[in-house]
Amino acid sequence: MRLFCTGGRRRLSFFLAAMVWLLGSCAAMASQTEKAEKTDAEAGKPSVVDAKKPKDKEKYLRLRRDEKNQPIAMEVAIVRFEPTQRGKRSPVVDLVGAVHVAEPAYYAELNKRFADYDAVLYELVAPEGTRPPRDASSGGSPISAVQTGLTRLLDLQFQLEGIDYRRPNMVHADMSPEEFSRSMRENGESVLTVFMRMLGYAMAQQAKDPAGSRDVELLMALMNKNRALALKRAMAKQFEDLGGAILALDGPGGSTLISRRNAKALKVLRRELDAGKQKLAIFYGAGHLPDMAKRLRADFHLQPTGAQWLRAWDMRERR
């Protein structure tokens, strides 16, 4: 209780870090801030990025800003990986970044794109083969309540409501709860170790903002007449400061949350490729994707050849 009664700024910063974790957006490790330009992304279409530019092709989540340096969009990448030398079998694997709470239009666009793949591998710690229903967030668990509250607070949609997992090409590619628990035990992990890593990272980030300006902005957003927009902008700025979040959570020896779940997903990818699938997508939280990209290079001999960006959060002023 002492943590929450002393140093209000630390409490608020940690609250934000926990919110980001629940959103699956500790993915912001790969975030990039760019000045806004009039591109297709602002019109609700993906913007195509030149894959020859390393600074672009290695990014999976970014913020766009206007001329006043105000966030106007949070965008997530779809990065294509292909063999460097084409043969008779030339599979294409797209890493599709996921944001677990986002605009309905973002999920609608993904649903359209997913129909074009032989297989879409998705994350969900659940029994093997689980296909979540569209109302999966309506359960009575505390996490479901938090997620539902966030969608209402931010005027967004929850991923399990927006994505259609019932299609035949949707393939579960994650650990079961039993595998997850066993992996944590084998790796010497616990909920407490994950909590302490998050806490340590949140405290380190707080030291960069001793005046607590971000916390003040969040409190002001809660009182703003356009609360959803103000909160999205305040929270989006936190993404810029979470550059080491995944490294902190994954730890030097890797973790069940990131590395080992990625290994399971790519084991499923290998199975699908061996079955003759040629065009595949891996739909995982963007924070997983830098590690997956390394594995695609090392284990599958695939290289990134292009990227597109989809707007997950729209933070433009409505007139």
As residue ranges, the low-confidence spans are 1-15, 20-44, 46-57
- Measure the end-to-end span: 44 Å
Largest sheet: 9 strands, mixed
Radius of gyration: 19 Å
Give the number of DSSP strands. Answer: 11
The total count of helices amounts to: 13
The secondary-structure class comes to alpha/beta
Which sequence of SSEs, written as H and E, runs from N to C? HHEEHEEEEHEHEHEHHHHHHEHE
Oligomer: single chain
Helical amount among residues, as a percent range? 40-55%
Instruction: Provide the domain count.
Output: 1
The global form is globular
Would you tell me the overall average pLDDT? 75
Which percent range describes the beta-strand content? 15-25%
Question: Could you characterize the architecture of this molecule?
Answer:
This protein has 319 residues and is an alpha/beta fold. The protein has one domain. The chain contains 13 helices and 11 strands. Strands 1, 2, 3, 4, 5, 7, 9, 10 and 11 form a 9-stranded mixed sheet that branches. Strands 6-8 form a two-stranded antiparallel ribbon. A hairpin with a 5-residue loop joins β3 and β4 (71-83). It is globular and about 55 Å long. The N and C termini lie far apart (44 Å).
